[in-house]
Design goal:
Radius of gyration: 25 Å
Shape: globular
Helix content: under 10%
Distance between the termini: 7 Å
Number of helices: 1
Strand content: over 45%
Largest sheet: 6 strands, antiparallel
Number of strands: 44
Length: 537
């Protein structure tokens, strides 16, 4: 006797998410909202921002809070961290400041912030963890409900000013938070190291280990020379670093303990390093990283090569060079070129993984690149600084010396750090609603349901549900997928405890069932509630 699944009413007709047609709004268009910058002089003529704030010299590393209410930014030259409230359009209003003693007027003192740069915010939005290069320190900054910042303590290398000492933090440069917020990692370029910290529910933290090229007390980590950026994949399974020495290193991460293992390093042929394999693709001056949410593709900003390089991660965790795009005037040997990648330092992938935005220290502008189904990039548009000689239809203040950018969580705003402008420039961004179609087969095998999905723009698919048999409830194993545009994918959902469900059905039980399919992207989502039944034949 075969038990099958069928949709009530037969075949589910094609459904489309309500909203604009797939191409009605051109995605990725950046419209300047304005910029905030240092209240003091020193900014090039014609490049000053309208709203000035104290302690913003060298402002350049923006981070958006998980709820999109606040933006935090470090000011390297002032050894300070500032907070701003965000409006619906993304416009910024200064809120609070903490700074290394003696703190500028209006800032709360926080020891250890000398040359503050890379930061990460906890998933609950209550804590910032800041890497400070000159003080060789990691500083915790508390975030109040209204965005006000306060000192939460620090740790530093033995030569640093903090009471608690941790090996591996000399010239601490960047921080990466694990998705669950229970671990984070600090990249220190002078020690050529990555330090792992545990984070408690209260926000306190403690060092748990380190990886380095040749630092006593740390495990061997090839390819960490002049390490500049560090990222954890969205699934928490991998950690990736990039270094100005021309190398990218990938670690396998234990999601339960946060520990790292199996480092695998890739360098370009001009920058060989012990323990690393080489690729002919450009990696010299690797300074910025962007990882897709599935962790399959890694984009690297190669500032000395004026190029963006695509690496792919194999199932074993090894990185393999796949493709590159270089500046029109560069000689890196890439098959594809485009203008505006001179000195490229910063990369930002939008929340839907549809587009990559680049910025650099030499180009004085932004380049918007569409990401294809094969992960390669195609130029969509650009924005240049007001004083830049490059030609783009849109110009903006605050874009000199771009080292870091941050999308809002919705993808509707992009915040760009202009280090040489001592400013944060904000752009409103058009996003594309994902028109979607779903079908479910008429008959299925026992305990399983399959539906096919297709999205006109990159979208997320989440499938949940349950089956009621008498007083018993059998839930499905949740499915989360990211679908590229234009590709039909078959989604397979498995019921928990399927064997018990099969036994009940074999006795002639008549179940009630419901499946919930949620589809969408940052522009909007739609939920389909599909009634199903189990029958015998």
């Amino acid at each position: 006797m075969l038990v099958v699944l069928a949709l009530l009413g037969g075949l589910l007709a094609a459904l489309t998410v309500a909203g604009a047609p797939a191409r009605a709004a051109r995605p990725g268009v950046l419209t300047p909202v304005g910029c905030v910058g240092d209240v003091d002089g020193g900014v090039p003529v014609g490049h000053a921002c309208a709203a000035g704030v104290e302690a913003a010299s060298g402002l350049g590393y923006p981070v958006v809070s998980p709820d999109d209410r606040f933006l935090f930014a470090s000011a390297f030259k002032e050894s300070a961290v500032l907070s701003f409230t965000r409006s619906a359009s993304g416009a910024l209003t200064y809120r609070s400041c903490v700074a290394d003693p003696p703190a500028p007027a209006g800032c709360t003192p926080a020891e250890g912030l000398g040359e503050a740069w890379g930061m990460a915010v906890s998933p609950d939005g209550r804590d910032l963890y800041v890497a400070a290069a000159a003080d060789h320190a990691l500083v915790r900054i508390r975030v109040a409900a209204n965005g006000t910042l306060s000192n939460g303590g620090c740790v530093s290398a033995p030569t640093g000013p903090c009471a608690t000492k941790v090996n591996g933090l000399r010239y601490a440069y960047n921080v990466a938070m694990a998705p669950a917020g229970d671990d984070f990692y600090v990249a220190a370029s002078e020690d050529r190291a990555v330090v792992h910290f545990d984070r408690s529910a209260s926000g306190s933290f403690a060092a748990r280990g380190c990886w380095a090229v040749d630092l006593a007390g740390c495990a061997a980590g090839p390819g960490l020379d002049s390490v500049a950026d560090v990222k954890v994949s969205a699934d928490g399974r991998h950690l990736v670093t990039a270094g100005y020495g021309g190398s990218v290193t990938s670690f396998t991460r234990n999601r339960r303990t946060g520990s790292l293992s199996a480092p695998r390093c890739l360098t370009d042929t001009l920058s060989p390093a012990p323990g690393c394999t080489t690729t002919p693709l450009p990696l010299d001056g690797a300074s910025g990283l962007a990882l897709t949410r599935d962790g399959r593709a890694v984009y690297v900003a190669s500032s000395y090569d004026d190029a963006v390089t695509l690496l792919r991660r194999t199932s074993a965790g090894t990185l393999v060079g796949a493709w590159c795009l270089q500046d029109s005037l560069a000689t890196s040997g890439c098959a594809r070129t485009t203008g505006g990648l001179e000195g490229v330092q910063a990369l930002a992938l939008d929340p839907d993984d549809d587009q990559l935005v680049t910025g650099g220290s030499g180009s004085a502008g932004l380049v918007v690149l569409d990401r294809g189904a094969d992960d390669t990039l195609t130029r969509r548009g650009c924005v240049t600084a007001t004083v830049s000689p490059l030609t783009c239809p849109t110009k903006s203040d605050g874009l000199l010396g771009i080292y870091q950018m941050a999308f809002s969580r919705s993808g509707r705003a992009l915040h760009v750090g202009g280090y040489d402008s001592s400013a944060i420039a904000t752009f409103r961004r058009t996003v594309q609603r994902a028109a979607t179609r779903f079908r479910a087969a008429r008959a299925q095998k026992i305990g399983k349901l399959r539906v096919s999905a297709r999205c006109d723009a990159r979208c997320d698919v989440a499938v949940t549900g349950k089956v009621r048999v008498g007083r018993k409830t059998f839930r499905v194993k949740k499915v989360d997928l990211v679908l590229p545009p234009g590709r039909t994918t078959r989604v397979r959902v498995t019921f928990r405890n399927a064997a018990a469900l099969k036994r009940l059905l074999a006795r002639g039980a008549r179940p009630r069932a419901a499946l919930v399919v949620k589809v969408g992207n940052s522009a909007g989502a739609k939920t389909y509630r599909v009634k199903v039944r189990l029958r015998r034949r």
